[in-house]
Structure prediction request, 155 residues.
Amino acid sequence: MTRVLKFIICSCVCGHKGRLDAQKMQSNLDEQPTLENVGAIYPRLKCSKCGAKKTEVWDDTGALLFDPSVNIGCQECGEPIILPRLSAQNGTSLCINCARLAEDELLNPSPPPPPPGKRTCPSCGSSTTTYTTRDGEHNFIGCARFPQCRWSSDF
Ligand SMILES: [Zn+2]
Ligand SMILES: [Zn+2]
Ligand SMILES: [Zn+2]
Prediction:
């Protein structure tokens, strides 16, 4: 279950502390802030008093999420990784989202691209792409214009 953050507290070196609640944040976000997306939100937060961007951020349980002096960016997407994750997964270099994507990729590797000789559909001249059968067992090559063009071939 994804935990929605009811509010986060943003604190600046100038001494200003701001409580940003989900409702307020949502007016410029399309989704509720959660531990998964707060990394994407972080770069958009700035102190409403002095405008500084490097702020400390706590979640609604009082856990420190971001400390500008120790922020580490995800090596995939560059978003800062929340501190509870950094300490739980000692030395991780991926944010929650990227780690999850990498895991999905391991469980369901994406199929290989069509081989060089089969990258153009002989029926209509469009490019081809790799499809996987409904049971997930076999890959085959098909026209990228499917269902307009129904050409397909084995690898
Ligand atoms: Zn400030
Ligand atoms: Zn990432
Ligand atoms: Zn075709």
Observations:
- The chain has a mean pLDDT of 90.
